[in-house]
Amino acid sequence: MSDARFQDVTRDIKVVIWDLDETFWNGTLSEGGITPVQAHIDMVRELVDRGIMCSICSKNDFETARARLVELGIWDRFVFPHIDWSPKGQAVQSILTRMQLRDENALFLDDNHMNLQEVKFFSPGIACVDAAGSTDGTQADLTGLLDLPQLKGKADKGHSRLQQYRVLETKESDQTEGNLSNEDFLRQSGIKVRVITDFDDQMDRVHELINRTNQLNFTKHRVNTPEEKAELARILRVPGVHAGLVQVQDRYGDYGIVGFFCVHKRFNGTNVHHFAFSCRTLNMGIEQWVWQHLDRPEFKVVGPVSSSLDDPAKVDWIALVDDFDAEQSSISDRRLCLVGGCDLQQVSFYCGSQRDEYVNKPDDNGLIVRYDDAGFFLNPRDKSLANNWVLKNIVGHSLDDMLGLDESLGRADVTILSLLFAFITHNLFTFEAQGDPDRYLATLPPKRLGTLVRNPEIAMRMLRTLHHLRLEDEAHLGMIRQCFERARSLMRPEASLFILGCSATFGPQAERTADKRVAYNAMCRSFCDSHPNTHFIDVDQLVPREEFVDSDHYTRKGYFVLADFIKSHVQDMARVA
Fold first, then answer.
1. pLDDT (tens digit, 9 = 90+) per residue, 179-208?
2. Rounded distance between C-alpha atoms, residue 339 and residue 337, angstroms
3. Residue 509 · residue 429 · CB < 8 Å
4. What would the pLDDT profile of 542-559 be if each residue is shown by its tens digit?
C-alpha cells in the first residue's frame, strides 16, 4: 500500500531538498545537539548514486551545521545548501534557480507544516512531504520514498551528475567573487562546442535527449515507440537532413553531450524536427549558438522553454572545435566559399560556419536561382549588367552577386566548386549588351525556364534577346574548365580549392549520362592535377554505395564523408604550414 504522505510526488524528481532539524536528524542543532538518523544518511547516498541530487534548506548557523554534516561524512553529497535564518519559501526558490531546475522536478522534506505551505506558495509545482514524526517522538520513516518510481533516477555510481553540479557551484562562486555580468563571465569561461555528426553508436543518448529534456526542448517531438524510432531513422537518411549531438566543455569541466538537433535544409527553407538541450548548460548560450550555427531557421517553438533563441542576438564567446585538445577547429576557423548545387549546401554544413554560399535558392517569385552557371564566373563585370533585363528577370542572380563571388574567392581559405549542372544542361544561352549579340552567358534550370515561357510577354522577349548556344562536349568542358581557371586565379596561392566530381556508376541519372559524367570527372581531375592546392573529390571512391540516395544525392553520412575528405586535407596543410 502506498504511503499517503507521498501522494504529492507525481513527477520525476531530480533534487530532494532536506530540512535538517527533526527531519534529516532528530533534535534541534541550536538547542543542545542532535541524534543522527543512519537511514537518512544512507538515503542521501543512495539518491546521489541514482543521479538524484540532494540539497539543504535549514534555519541554522551555516558553519555549525556544515561541521556536523562533515563529521557524519555526508556533507560532500549535498549541493547548493541554503543554511541560514531566512524564510524558506524564497530560499527553496533560490536553490532551484541556482540549480537550473524546475519546481515540478523537486521534492522538499520538512517537519514544519508552515514551512511546507510557504515553499509551496513560492514554488507551486514542487512536491512536499511532511517529515514530522509521531507524538511519541518516533522519527518519521522517509526511506519509503526510495521505492517510488518517481525517484528511480538513473544509475550514476560514478557521481557524474554530482560533479556537474559541483562545477555549477564553482562557476557561481567565481562569477560572484569577480563581480562579473553573465556575458563577461561566459567570455572568460573558454566555452568550446564539438558537434558530433557520426552518432549511430549513440542513438540511446539521442533518444534520451529527445524524450527526457523539457526546459530546453524547443520542439518536444518525442521518440518512444518502435514506429517513432523507425521514423527518426528514416529522417536521418534523407538528403538535406543535418543532425548532430552537441558536446560542451569549458575551463570548469566537461558537460558531456548536452544537445541534439535534426533539421532538414532545402533551397526553399528549413524544417526543424528536433532541437533539444539539457538544462545543465542553461544560461551558457549553447542553444542560441547552435541555432545561429544552423543559420537561424524559423520554426514554431513548443513551450514552455526556459530560454529564448534570439536573446542574446549574437553568441560570440563559444568556439567550435573538432577536438577539445585543439585551440579551434582546423577548418571552422577558416573562411569558405562554395559555388554549386544543393549538394554543396549539404557538404558545407559539416565544414564550418564562416562561409559564403552561392547555391540553389528561390528568388522573390519562388523560382530557383542556380549559381552553377558558366556565366556567373565568366561574364564581364560590366556596370551595364546592373539593370540588364535578362540578368534581372530571367537568370535571377545579379551583378552584385558576381562581384560578391570575386571578393569571396579572394578572401576564402577554402573554396569548393560543383559545376556538373553547368556542363550537362542543354539550357545554355547567350544574350547581348553594348551592341554585342553574344556578349554574356546564361544557364537556365529547366523548371525556371518552363515557368518563365508560360508568360507570353516574357516568352516573346526571351525569343528576341536569348540565343541558344549549342556546344560539343569538348568545347563545353573547356568552358567549365575556364570557370575553374578564373576561380583559381582569384584565389590566394596558399588557399585550397576542392572540385566535387559526380557519380558515373550509380543510379539512373548516371546511366543516362554516363559518358558525360566520365568526361566531366576526367577534366576535373586533370585540372586538379595541374594546379597546386587543388583537389578532386571522387564521390564514387569516397561515398559508400549504401549512402547513395540517387546519382547526385547522398544520405547525411554520405555528405559528412565528403566533408571529412575536405577537412583532412586542410588539416594536413595546416600541419605542413
1. 888 888 998 999 999 999 889 999 999 999
2. 7
3. no
4. 999 999 989 988 888 888
Q: Report helix, strand or coil for 559.
A: helix
Q: Do the Cβ atoms of 419 and 480 come closer than 8 Å?
A: yes
> Cell 517553438, residue?
301
Give the mean pLDDT of 319-324: 84
In the chain, ranges of CATH 3.40.630 domains: 180-320
All CATH 3.40.50.1000 domain ranges in the chain, comma separated: 4-154
pLDDT score of 574 more than 90: no
Instruction: Show the cell assigned to 452.
Output: 518563365
Mean pLDDT is lowest, of 115-119, 245-249, 544-548, 566-570, for 566-570
More confident call, 1 vs 224: 224
Any idea which architecture 180-320 has in CATH? Answer: 3-Layer(aba) Sandwich (3.40)
Per residue, what are the HEC states of 254-323? EEEEEEEEEEEEECCEEEEEEEEECHHHCCCCHHHHHHHHCCCCCCCCCCCCCCCCCCCCCCCCEEECCC
Q: What is residue 36's DSSP assignment? A: -
SS3 content of the chain, % helix, strand, coil (to 5): 45, 20, 35
Say how far residue 347 (Cα) sits from the centre of its chain: 15
State the residue for C-alpha cell 542543532: 29
pLDDT score, position 505 = 92
**What's the one-letter identity of residue 460?**
M
What is the Cα–Cα distance from 260 to 282, expressed in whole angstroms? 15
Is pTM beyond 0.85 here? no
CA dihedral over 450, 455, 458, 462, signed as positive or negative: positive
Sign of CA dihedral 308, 310, 313, 316: positive
Residue 19: count other Cβ atoms within 10 Å of its Cβ. 23
% of the chain at pLDDT higher than 70 = 94
Question: Which architecture does CATH list for 4-154?
Answer: 3-Layer(aba) Sandwich (3.40)
Q: Is the pLDDT of residue 1 over 50?
A: no
Closest to 278 in 3D by CA, of 300, 261, 298: 261
Q: What is the pLDDT of residue 316?
A: 87
**Could you tell me if residue 521 is left (phi over 0), alpha (psi between -120 and 50 degrees) or otherwise beta?**
alpha
CATH class as words, domain 336-576: alpha beta
At 327 the three-state DSSP class reads coil
